[in-house]
Amino acid sequence: MRIITLIENTPGAPGCAHEHGLSLYIETARHTLLLDTGASDAFAANAAALGLDLGRVDTVVLSHGHYDHAGGLLRMAQLAPQAAIYMQRGAGQDFYHGARYIGIDKAILQLPGVRLLDGDCRLDDELFLFAGVTGRRFWPQSNLELRAAGPGGVLRQDDFAHEQCLVVTQGVRHILLSGCAHNGIFNILDRYRALFGADPDVVVSGFHMKKAEPYTDAEWQVIEDTGRALQAYRHTQFYTGHCTGRPAQERLQQILGAQLRALHSGVALDL
């Protein structure tokens, strides 16, 4: 199995753009798929620079309903009109960071390839999608700034019911992929364990720790506590980037060492 970070916040492969967004190109034994499409069509330019044919993609998964993960979906639908696009039904709501709209382009919902899901969905023996994460262990406090429009357009705290995770099974190995882990990486891991009875072999996910302003002492403590708690997953390899933020990622790296590796635009992971 191969995963190529088509776009992410940090530079990587020569000739590849980077932006605040995430898109992962995944080749399995039976599928060519994408998890998310970044904030723009830059993911497609990077794919061309890397010699990847996005016209071969058969499946697209949207991790949640934010622009920095869905910004290239309309372009992707042009490149691979045959691809099925899976998203939770709630991903089409109106989402805000303060007064700024951060939801998806509503034209995406009219694409013929869109499949709206209500919770978990097994696509086949390789691909499984799950939602329904309800725990609040180490829940990212930056979520408190994020709102969803409820009935009558009234804004409420986003509960991230629209977030879904992808599990890829290759033989006896299981790879868990999430976009931002808004529901909290430990709550996602708890739900995974409830579904599969064990921990994943590999996790690829943002941890939603990125901040524009300096971290407080309390926030640094949460980052360090997160790193120590992740050490307990002794047989799981973690890859992170995008919304984790470089300072938090570097602190986590000090704790986890080789158990945590960084994502960069255009860089491949051979698993």
What secondary-structure arrangement, pairings included, does this model have?
Layout: E1 2-7, E2 23-27, E3 32-35, H1 42-49, E4 59-61, H2 67-70, H3 73-79, E5 84-88, E6 95-97, E7 100-101, E8 114-117, E9 121-122, E10 127-130, E11 146-149, E12 155-157, E13 165-170, E14 173-177, H4 185-196, E15 202-204, H5 217-230, E16 237-240, H6 246-256, E17 260-262, E18 268-270
Parallel strand pairs: 3-4, 4-5, 5-8, 14-15, 15-16, 16-17
Antiparallel strand pairs: 1-2, 1-18, 2-3, 6-7, 6-11, 9-10, 10-13, 11-12, 13-14
What would you note in describing this structure?
It comes from Candidatus Gemmiger excrementipullorum. The protein has 271 residues and is of the alpha/beta class. It has six helices and 18 strands. Strands 8-5-4-3-2-1-18 form a seven-stranded mixed sheet. It has a seven-stranded mixed sheet with strand order 9-10-13-14-15-16-17, with helices on one face. A hairpin with a 2-residue loop joins strand 6 (95-97) and strand 7. The longest helix is centred in the C-terminal third of the chain and has 14 residues, at 217-230. The termini are close together. 41% of the residues are buried.
Structure at a glance:
By secondary structure, the chain is α/β, with parallel strands linked by helices.
